[in-house]
Amino acid sequence: MTPTLNETQPGPVPQSGTEVLRVEHLSKRYAPGFPAVLDDLSFAVHKGEMLALLGPSGCGKTTTLRVIAGFERADQGQVLLDGRALIGPQVFLAPEKRNVGMVFQDYALFPHLNVTQNVMFGLKNMNRQEREERTRQVLGLVGLNIFAKRYPHELSGGQQQRVALARALAPRPKLILMDEPFSNLDAALRHTTRQEVKAILREAGMTAILVTHDQEEALSFADRIMLMRAGKIEQIGTPPEVYQSPRTAFVANFLGRSNLISARAAGKTADSCLGKLNLSEEAKGPVLISIRPEDIVFADQGVPVTVKYMEYKGHDVTYTCTCGEQEVLVHAHHNHHFLEGQQAFVTVQGLAQVLRGS
Ligand SMILES: Nc1ncnc2c1ncn2[C@@H]1O[C@H](COP(=O)(O)OP(=O)(O)OP(=O)(O)O)[C@@H](O)[C@H]1O
Asked: Within this chain, do residues 270 and 342 fall inside the same structural domain, yes or no?
């Protein structure tokens, strides 16, 4: 799959600057003797930024969110929101005092309350008129004023998720946490709902953290992606940074598909089965490099390969080719027609990414 970068960009992307959330050296084990679920996590989120926590099942995404929300306790570390400690040495602020909004996978709406009542429920320290006014405002923001009197079962999944978002936004939190908020929606609704939610969060200037295991969702929704593996941060960066410049084989493989190729580096170039390649950084001796399948193109001349098999995907085709002992994936436009067993030539575009670690 070729992820679509910047699928939607409603509103200005926030400038990095004012830090809203700071997480420092967060660690957690669910039981003594068990492996750490969070292992010395440190990161920051800036005002108006949307950060996606991405990674395989069990890597600690939800636990990170629940510790920030106050539903789980950490063994160590600090969490600061707008400079105020939520968690720290001798500090544990109750969830309702954190000024953090939460949106869950299953929406968690009260079935016996209508839309207005669901949104008003979270509003404290206001008189009735102020609560009604704020509820109208946020329902306007999520485009649901006309459904104000409906009950959750009278709404689509996408509309219910927008009510849940309105409820989370109503008390004007400093941070919204969203745990797999689109995963209960079918593919088409998931796509439009996440565009709407992104536009609403931008409009409100809200800072948000989204947990997802869907790489395309992370690439298209977030300003930055934090890729997690076994309780640690594997890489954090903008979608193009993590997709185009993966630092490890794990990141290269988790985000899209990649060719991992052994090569011998000498400065900014390396010799490989795909010929002499330009490297993303200087290296010396044996290296493992990553080249995206869309950066290998069929040409009239170049490195000879043999087509082993093809996967037709409509908009494009992925060919698995052999190049000496190595298998390489090549994404090509669907107007390329190569038969299995046919010889072809390829060239590599751009820089090959030098990988570290495992
Ligand atoms: N209450 C709990 N008690 C014991 N272990 C737990 C508890 N909650 C989570 N775990 C374990 O902690 C690890 C991390 O879980 P977590 O839910 O944070 O991962 P995740 O990355 O969000 O996974 P998924 O994508 O499957 O939701 C997993 O191995 C999980 O089994």
From this structure: yes
Give dist(CA 69, CA 79) in Å, integer: 10
Decide: 65 in ligand 1 pocket, CB within 6 A.
no
Q: Give Cα separations from 47 to 13, 17, 85 (angstroms).
A: 10, 7, 17
Residue with the smallest CA separation from ligand 1 atom 1 is 30
Tell me the mean pLDDT in the region 28-43: 93
- 296: CA distance to ligand 1 center in Å? 38
Calculate how far, in angstroms, residue 58's C-alpha sits from the geometric centre of ligand 1.
5
How far is CA 219 from each of CA 214, 292, 321, rounded to the nearest angstrom? 9, 16, 28
62 lines ligand 1 (CB under 6 A): yes
Q: What CATH number does the domain containing 56 carry? A: 3.40.50.300
Check which CATH number belongs to the domain holding 321 and give it: 2.40.50.140
Bridge partners of 93?
none
pLDDT at 1 over 50: no
ipTM: 0.96
